[in-house]
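Action item from last meeting closed. Structure (175 res):
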């Protein structure tokens, strides 16, 4: 944009030729459309739930979980925001871009949740309860977290799932 502004606002005495005029004039609608598309997408992500994501079937003890899989930045940032409910044994799996410490909050999230922080080997390292609309971050105590699994609050306790339990069926991550 600096180049465009410089060329169009330059005080140089030379006239702008037709090629330059047409080149920049043809790009203006494209840039405006791209800006509007980005603005609309950002607005939608902040005011309504994202569409259902692909499902990964996970095995936790004797339970099978249907987990929508958030594996890119936009999907992870939207998470379960604005959802009103979750079906039985359903949740959301967050696949981190790299292994490290993580932190989650509940901005615009209506459902009380429990979250499991999981290491690259599929071992649950920590469990935390999260309250709707609480924007306080819940940081992992462990520094090698590769996944986070959100389930309805109390699901892990109810199903006798504790730290140290292995989660089967996790997608592969880049190490």
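Sequence:
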């Amino acid at each position: 944009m600096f180049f465009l502004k410089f060329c169009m606002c330059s005080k140089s005495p030379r006239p702008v030729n037709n090629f330059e005029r047409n080149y920049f004039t043809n790009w203006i609608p494209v840039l405006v459309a791209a800006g509007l598309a980005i603005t609309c997408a950002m607005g939608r992500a902040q005011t309504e739930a994202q569409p259902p994501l692909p499902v990964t079937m996970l095995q936790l003890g004797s339970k099978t979980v249907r987990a929508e899989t958030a594996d890119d930045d936009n999907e992870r940032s939207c998470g379960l925001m604005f959802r009103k409910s979750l079906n039985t044994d359903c949740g959301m799996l967050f696949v981190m871009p790299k292994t490290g410490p993580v932190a989650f909050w509940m901005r615009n999230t209506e459902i009380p949740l429990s979250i499991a922080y999981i290491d690259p080997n599929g071992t649950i390292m920590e469990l935390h309860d999260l309250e709707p609309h609480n924007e306080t971050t819940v940081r992992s105590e462990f520094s090698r977290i590769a996944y986070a699994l959100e389930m309805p609050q109390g699901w892990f306790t109810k199903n006798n799932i504790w730290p140290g339990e292995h989660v089967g069926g996790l997608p592969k991550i880049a190490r």
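Note appended to the action item: Confidence is low (pLDDT under 50) at residues 1-12, 23-45.
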